[in-house]
Amino acid sequence: MTQAPELAISQWFNTDTPLTLAQLRGRVVVLHAFQMLCPGCVQGGIPQAQRIANLFSPDKVAVIGLHTVFEHHDAMTPVALKAFLHEYRITFPVGVDVPGECTPIPQTMAAYGMQGTPTLILIDRAGRIRKHGFGAEDDLRVGADIALLTAEPASA
Amino acid sequence: MTQAPELAISQWFNTDTPLTLAQLRGRVVVLHAFQMLCPGCVQGGIPQAQRIANLFSPDKVAVIGLHTVFEHHDAMTPVALKAFLHEYRITFPVGVDVPGECTPIPQTMAAYGMQGTPTLILIDRAGRIRKHGFGAEDDLRVGADIALLTAEPASA
Amino acid sequence: MTQAPELAISQWFNTDTPLTLAQLRGRVVVLHAFQMLCPGCVQGGIPQAQRIANLFSPDKVAVIGLHTVFEHHDAMTPVALKAFLHEYRITFPVGVDVPGECTPIPQTMAAYGMQGTPTLILIDRAGRIRKHGFGAEDDLRVGADIALLTAEPASA
Amino acid sequence: MTQAPELAISQWFNTDTPLTLAQLRGRVVVLHAFQMLCPGCVQGGIPQAQRIANLFSPDKVAVIGLHTVFEHHDAMTPVALKAFLHEYRITFPVGVDVPGECTPIPQTMAAYGMQGTPTLILIDRAGRIRKHGFGAEDDLRVGADIALLTAEPASA
């Protein structure tokens, strides 16, 4: 199993202090990568991430949104994202992925090898990637996947 | 925790041999009680039970439908149920709850104290009732609830 | 344009007096053919027919359900239909299509050449068939189709 | 009936030439006012406007989107709107409402007395306002409303 690369974030929303995966070790991390103008994210992935955040105890499961802008960079700015998060009543922490150099793909997106948005990544309590899904995910399966990871021991 | 009462079934569909909870010990049992003319069952509970049956391995999770007719008894006969299961492509085993004596409530429904349909009951690997829900249930939560029970040891 | 054949009905629900197309001349008639155990009818066609009945004035638009049982005859009896209409809160008149002789296809279904259920037939104010649709129909289009027929003069 | 005020538009998308209501006289105009970050617009109003544009002949019914930004002005810029229209596959013409002076409410929105977004306004073939709806609208009713206006004579 692959260790999850640390997040590279230029700006956070919905959290007072920056978050790191290192600091979240011991909890299951649900990393939801999206773009605010991606219809599949708005209709499916983002509401699902919010439902996950509402269901599981934050002591056990940390939901983190990752704004991985790889197209329409001048439209999906942090200012626009802030308004989006407000209008859609998103309450979980969201980090802006650091833009790439000489590439439209931002850095965390590249480090994880994501194919597009929405992408759902589950990281276990020991910091390892256990699921990497591109596109729509079934609530029933995602609920089961996350629950099983919470039932594992914290250390590898 | 309460031990789950054994099922009282007059007729089975979608299984060659009658099922008992005793025989399913070691597996998580998802007991979905419905009536074929209950709109909330048709729109929500029954499709959810089918999704559960599709997702989890039958070695670990046994989905059982229970036709708990407590009203319109002359409409929801076993003949009608058979046509219903065919038309709605239900593949999991379904048992007809034994009619009550001097009461419209059938016997298994009474033994479990169900309030109506749909009702979802989760029975753990040791045969104990762990969840008893009346009405619509969230896929995310149900997926998590079932998964956690599969992760428990088989004996109490 | 074809004149709509008169309905052959063995039993009515949700109306005190039997209905005939002759008697409804001057109004647009929405004829919704269904079977109570047809999933596409339960999920799509029947709720749409109820929405039509709720939206348009009965002085202008008469919604009639037609129970065209062509399979599972012993399951979809008038007794079962009565319970179904009660449970699904259907308020518009529903007639049971007269069973065929030497054929599973009932008489009105045969007279109209329907291919299956759900079928939606629109009859204009002069009693002529103006739309004959098999399968799911779009609300926007159906609303427009019916409205245009109400705007036509009553006589051919 | 009130004559529909002319549109005040700073920039058009999805049309080579600017549109005016005067020029569309003789057709029914469906004016859909939205904001690109309004959840009710994205989930309901905008897809409905696209369905209307797909269903009715453009010779008879002109669908026009109006981007009435009254909040989050720095987020919902024309650059962001352009990306939004591309991502959501919007094909009907969309005009950007001219910003207000000394007020967050843009000019066309103010002239029509709109309460918020989404708003659906139907303008008849003679240029008069015939429907002014704020919030979610039923497809069946909207289809009927539009169809009836197309059946009216062109001159008042």
How would you describe what is shown here?
Four copies of one chain form a homotetramer. The first copy, chain A, is an alpha/beta fold. Chain A has a single domain (2-13, 24-60, 68-151), classed as Glutaredoxin, CATH 3.40.30. The first copy, chain A, contains five helices and six strands. A six-stranded mixed sheet of chain A has the order 1-4-3-2-5-6. In chain A, β5 and β6 form a beta hairpin. Chain A is globular. The relative contact order of chain A is 0.25. The model of chain A has no long low-confidence stretch (mean pLDDT 97).
Residue-averaged pLDDT of chain A, rounded? 97
Uncertain runs of chain A are: none
Query: Helical element count of chain A?
Result: 5
How many β-strand runs of chain A? Answer: 6
Oligomer: homotetramer
Features:
homotetramer, alpha/beta, six-stranded mixed β-sheet, globular
Briefly, what is this?
4 copies of one chain form a homotetramer. Chain A has helices at residues 21-24, 39-55, 78-87, 107-112, 139-150; strands at residues 9-13, 28-34, 61-67, 94-97, 119-123, 129-134.
